[in-house]
Design brief:
single chain; 226 residues; alpha/beta; Rossmann fold; two-stranded parallel ribbon; 10 strands; 20% strand; binds adenosine-5'-triphosphate; binds magnesium ion
Length: 226
């Protein structure tokens, strides 16, 4: 791995996976090899007797190299609940995630790790949360903000917590999830003033995951190591 990022967001269902896949394609277009990881996923279905998560499968599909599912998603829970309420016989273990991450780091130049839910979601009953996971992997963090009423508060809280944890916020992305949002541009401008990290892209509203459209909005040039 030359470079990695941890993708978090202001909430669950804000566009983290769409952003992660778009960034994978962005780096691939620059000629880099990329893998994506979703270390903890809740909301999985049994396929051929194994728990599989939609996000993790999409990351696996979009990787530059073929990687086994268990390296992408070591902790898969069937129920769509907070991970600490998932299968308690198999609690999230950060040591295991970091060991798997070390293996994944050997497979590609860019490693993108998607969080689960938002920044302070508990992962187990030992006190680990998404923030602790990002800290353990020591990755700069990218924050996804779903543009809807209330997002300024959520974005400020999340940004404050990221910086407060000692990690770097590499930047943030706006996903325009609400086609009726009023004062969208003004909200984005307000966030640019209040978030002391660069705006890396604005995904326009799109009913489908239009990665070709999204990738055109990305500007990460300041972060590319040459
Ligand atoms: N640019 C966009 N335009 C319209 N809708 C969007 C956009 N980005 C995201 N969404 C909506 O948000 C939903 C969730 O996106 P995504 O799966 O990427 O979120 P997530 O944060 O990864 O969710 P989870 O917490 O389940 O991992 C999409 O299915 C879509 O309905
Ligand atoms: Mg997701």
């Amino acid at each position: 791995m030359e470079q990695g990022f941890f993708i978090t967001g202001t909430d669950t269902n804000v566009g983290k996976t769409w952003v992660t896949v778009t960034l994978m394609r962005y780096f691939q277009a620059l000629g880099k090899t990329v893998v994506g990881m979703k270390p903890v996923a809740s909301g999985c279905e049994l396929i051929d007797g194994k728990l599989r998560n939609e996000d993790a499968l999409l990351l696996q599909e979009n990787a530059s190299v073929s990687v086994g599912y268990d390296l992408i998603n070591p902790f898969a829970y069937q129920q769509p609940v907070s991970p600490h309420l998932g299968d308690t016989s198999n609690p999230v273990d950060l040591n295991k995630i970091s060991a798997v991450f070390e293996v994944l780091k050997q497979t590609a130049e860019i490693v993108l790790v998607e969080g689960v839910g938002g920044w302070l979601v508990p992962l187990n009953h030992q006190g680990d949360d998404v923030q602790a996971l990002a800290g353990r992997l020591k990755l700069p963090v990218i924050m996804v903000v779903a543009m809807r009423l209330g997002c300024i508060n959520h974005a400020r809280l999340t940004y404050q917590a990221i910086v407060g944890s000692g990690l770097t916020c590499a930047g943030w992305l706006a996903t325009c999830v609400d086609p009726e949002m009023q004062k969208l541009d003004e909200n984005i401008q307000t966030l640019q003033l209040l978030i002391n990290a660069p705006l890396l892209g604005i995904f326009p509203y799109s009913k489908t995951a239009d990665f070709k459209l999204f990738v055109k909005t990305i500007d990460l040039m300041g972060y590319i190591k040459t």
